[in-house]
Amino acid sequence: MRYGKFDDEQREYVIDRPDTPLPWINYLGTDEYFGIVSNTAGGYSFYRDAKLRRLTRYRYNNAPFDIGGRYLYLRDDASGDFWSPSWQPTRSTLDEYECRHGLSYTRIASARSGIRAETLYFVPLGETLEVWRTKVTNERDTAAELSLFSSVEFCLWDAQDDATNFQRNFNTGQVEVVDGVIYHKTEYRERRDHFAYFACSEPLAGFDTQRETFLGAYRGWDQPAAVERGAAFDSVANGWQPMGSHHVKLSLAPGESREVIFVLGYAENPRAEKFDPPGSQTVNKRYVRPVIERWLRPETVAEGFAKLGAYWERLLGNLQVTTPDADTDRMVNIWNAYQCMVTFNMSRSASFYESGIGRGMGFRDSNQDLLGFVHIIPERARERILDIAGTQKETGGAYHQYQPLTKRGNNDIGEGFNDDPLWLVLGVSAYLKETGDLSILDAPVPFDNAPGSEVPLYEHLRRSVQYTQDRLGPHGLPLIGRADWNDCLNLNCFSETPGEPFQTTENVSGGSAESVFIAGQFVLAAKELAAIAELRALDGEAAEYRAAAEKMTGVILEHGWDGAWFRRAYDFHGNPIGSGENDEGQIFVEPQGMCVLGGVGLDDGLAAQALRSVADRLATPHGIVLQQPAYTSYRIELGEISSYPPGYKENAGIFCHTNPWIMIAEAMVGNGDGAFDYYKRINPSAREEISELHRCEPYVYAQMIAGKDAATHGEAKNSWLTGTAAWNFVAITQWILGIRPELAGLRVDPVLPGSWEGFRATRAYRGATYEITVRKPAGSSGRVAYLIVDGERVDGTVVPPAAAGKVVQVEAVVEG
What we know:
alpha+beta, 6-stranded antiparallel beta sheet
């Protein structure tokens, strides 16, 4: 069952009924100011940091699920009938409804009783504000007297404090209305630093800034008293719950349309004037009023929206493909690339499943997000790498997460996720392969953002690898610490006496539990760092890293191979995890992917055997589950993983993030049909027909899909912010389609399904444009024999970098 359709030409997903199985959302903003918007106008906005600079309030885990947002109300002043053009929050019956989620914008249109309304929401490039452009049309044969009400509920900046510290917050709200602009002045424990504003392009019939006055006692957003009576109360908030609402009167002749623009924004006062006396609005008006007035003009809004479209046209133009599969084209050319941009901006911090409070930017997460984003805006990828590296400890360890506003590590999370440091090597390697910018390796980067501790970025990479080498366990495998990639596999938990509370080792990074996954990751990272060392003419150092990779490979084969697949780990007591010796959790997907990515078992057939075990034991029609059999009871020595019911999340759920590792591994062993089959199983576009089961958005990847042990096998959760986006983009574009940036140039080495006869692609790379054609006989599973580059045969599959601005014609010849 579908709830909408793809409009590929407009690069939009069109939702044609508001009652989607879950809120289907989109993101506004591209740089510093961001917002989440659902298909019924739910969501919230923030500046840079969803925890510390939250502009508007949103209530998670509510009933209905999606309450709080950018709501408008229309009222027929003749009849008293009122409704929400976005359906929520009044949920009044609409004669027509359509939501179009586009690239950093959303358009919601509806009609009721002969009145049509269409609202465009977007954040202009380079601005710290959002625009709501609403067009109201009278389609009746008679004149219409209407009232239009806007509404937002302000958050008191620190979203966690806002949701908990009521004894203080009910006394701090400050709002001022000046010349029709609503200024939210409430500060969090400091004065005159930043503020929000909410403005309207039309003369106001009234306004409200006190929530309980606007709504009325014991009422909700579905029945505001001001809207019901058709007149605002002109309330000014002093404490309690500040909000913003404009009341505009519209008199429309038959067929007449009126456009009303609302602007919600964030501003900071100049630092020299930060401590101006409270109550003075001279600074606000002096610096902000020109911005407000400019964006309340229709021509400015039209120009800003056109620039946003041109921006995305340029970004997506860096890679476009035409293949025999529509789902592949749609995801590669539009939605997967777009999701990679969003995950790059948000990490895992702010979605409808992440509150924006508990997590900032992830060290592991953000490095992986680079993989799918670096080709789009490499300059921002460079900036992010330096930000991430600046949070690293001198030991080479890393804060698992850090706040984007302060760039300080979250101490409550701390370090000890022992896979974290190695991801920095892989992120930097991806950047170097894409850009050739070796200067980043000499960029000075501090440890823990401490002034005076700066060393070249290359030294951070050295310490990332050394961190693993300094933390090896009894079998010579890397210590897992708190956890590796699987945050819920906490193997340094133990109980001295059965039934007693669990304990942890005092220093989990020094606990005895070991990770085969990190071992495979180390092999991959050490090889990448060896190649980087060679670029710096450090041949001796490169040899040391290759020797370390070879040594770890030997340890994996001796202690990590279980006979038909790679083991997962060893627990605190030295017992194998992910082994045929176990009664449950005998095989895990992560090491089957990561060990093969590191090249372990490729030459002796073990990689192919491990992948056959994945196909036999872990693959389902909805994707590859994390492990089998699922854990059916809580096991203290495993930690959180066994606390989930079978088939959900880390306990044998389809954790989509790991699926592309298997796709890549299948491509590495030459199995194009297997790699593409796995790709299609979790491709959101390919799952659109089963939206009533999948439930999440059919245009972006979800973090997990319920596994075969679950009661709701095939149901997705945690959409949008997931490493699944970047890794699937890498799997399909770099390994299945085979257009892969490397240090020496652009490799064209596809591993295609047998039924394909080829494909075409346009790829920007280091300032040049490569127009690529791949042709192969139908039914063939062969590989590229040679390339024809600008009419000349080139042996091998690597095209050397061309001069900036050049258009290079590449034909890949596949022989059966």
